[in-house]
C-alpha cells in the first residue's frame, strides 16, 4: 500500500458505509482492511498516524474547540482521526483552511468529530487478521465445551467483526455461554500489538516527501492554551458563526 492506496481505501469505505454513522464506518473499514495482507494493514496504520500528526496545527485546534465546545489533548487527537476519516479532499482543504469545515453538516450529538476508535482501526484489524490466521480460532466455535454449538462459529465471527465497533448487539448478552465465548475470544486478542510491529515497516523518506508536497498548510496563529471568542472569530469565522451557540463554553487544550 502507498499513500494513494490509503486514500482510495477511505474513499471506498465512505461510499459503502452509512453516512455519519461511526460504527458503520468502522465496520466497513475493518472489513476492507481484513481483505489485505498483514503488511498492508500495518501500512494503513502508519499512514493514518502520519496524516494525523500532520494535522496538528493551531488553526485545527481552534476548529476543534468551536465544533466540540472546547477540546483536550486526547480530544484533539480524536478530532484528527475523524478528519482523516473524512477523506483526502476534506482533509487537504482543512489543512489549507480550517474554516472550510463549516461546509460540512456535522451531527452535533455525541461529539461526532471525536472519532477515537478510528485512530485505532489499523490496530483492531491487525489483531483480528492475526487471530484469523491462527488455526486455534477456527476451533473455538465448535468446541464441545460450549452449549452454543453449532452456532459457535457464527458467534465467533460476530465477535471478531464487532471488535472495532463502539456498540455490539451481543456484548451485553445475559447468556453465560455467550459471555464465556466472548471472554475466550477477546482473551486471545493482543491489544496494541501493531505498534511494535509497525516499527519494522516505516514509511520511506521519499514517500514522506511526496506526502508532504501534496499538502498546503494554512498560515496558522500561534498556539494558545485557551481560545477566547475574539480569537476564534478571527481564526475560524465561518465555524464560529455556525456554532456560536457554544461560545459560552469555549475553552482550549
What does this structure look like?
Helix content is 56%, strand content 0%. The model has no long low-confidence stretch (mean pLDDT 90). It is built from 14 helices and no strands. It has helices at residues 3-16, 22-34, 38-54, 58-67, 73-85, 88-96, 121-132, 135-140, 152-161, 176-187, 194-197, 205-213, 229-235, 237-242. Helix 2 (22-34) crosses helix 7 and helix 3 (38-54) crosses helix 5 (73-85). The two termini are 34 Å apart. With 253 residues, it is mainly α.
Count helical runs.
14
* Average of the residue pLDDT scores: 90
Q: What is the overall shape?
A: globular
**Strand-residue fraction?**
under 5%
Radius of gyration from the alpha-carbon trace, in angstroms: 20 Å
User: Strand pairing plus helix content: what structural class?
Assistant: mainly alpha
Helix content: 55-70%
Seen as an oligomer or otherwise, the chain set is single chain
Secondary-structure element string: HHHHHHHHHHHHHH
Question: How many runs of DSSP E, i.e. beta strands?
Answer: 0
In the predicted model, the low-confidence regions spanning at least 5 consecutive residues are none
Report the end-to-end length measured between terminal Cα atoms.
34 Å
- Largest sheet, strands/sense/barrel: none
Amino acid at each position: 500500500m502507498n499513500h494513494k492506496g490509503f486514500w482510495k481505501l477511505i474513499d471506498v469505505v465512505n461510499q459503502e458505509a452509512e453516512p455519519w454513522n461511526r460504527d458503520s464506518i468502522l465496520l466497513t473499514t475493518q472489513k476492507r482492511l481484513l481483505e489485505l495482507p498483514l503488511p498492508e494493514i500495518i501500512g494503513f496504520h502508519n499512514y493514518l498516524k502520519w496524516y494525523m500528526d500532520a494535522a496538528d496545527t493551531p488553526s485545527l485546534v481552534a476548529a476543534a474547540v468551536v465544533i466540540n465546545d472546547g477540546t483536550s489533548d486526547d480530544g484533539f487527537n480524536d478530532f484528527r482521526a475523524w478528519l482523516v476519516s473524512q477523506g483526502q479532499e476534506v482533509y487537504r482543504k482543512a489543512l489549507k483552511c480550517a474554516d472550510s469545515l463549516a461546509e460540512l453538516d456535522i451531527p452535533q450529538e455525541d461529539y461526532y468529530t471525536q472519532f477515537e476508535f478510528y485512530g485505532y482501526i489499523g490496530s483492531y484489524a491487525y489483531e483480528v487478521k492475526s487471530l484469523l490466521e491462527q488455526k486455534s480460532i477456527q476451533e473455538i466455535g465448535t468446541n464441545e465445551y460450549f452449549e452454543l454449538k453449532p452456532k459457535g462459529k457464527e458467534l465467533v465471527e460476530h465477535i471478531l467483526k464487532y471488535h472495532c465497533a463502539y456498540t455490539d448487539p451481543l456484548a451485553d448478552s445475559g447468556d453465560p455461554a455467550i459471555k464465556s465465548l466472548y471472554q475466550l475470544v477477546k482473551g486471545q486478542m493482543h491489544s496494541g500489538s501493531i505498534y511494535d510491529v509497525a516499527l519494522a515497516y516505516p514509511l520511506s523518506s521519499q514517500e514522506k516527501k511526496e506526502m508532504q508536497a501534496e499538502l498546503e498548510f494554512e498560515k496558522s496563529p500561534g498556539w494558545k492554551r485557551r481560545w477566547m471568542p475574539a480569537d476564534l472569530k478571527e481564526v475560524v469565522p465561518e465555524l464560529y458563526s455556525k456554532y456560536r451557540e457554544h461560545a459560552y463554553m469555549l475553552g482550549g487544550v
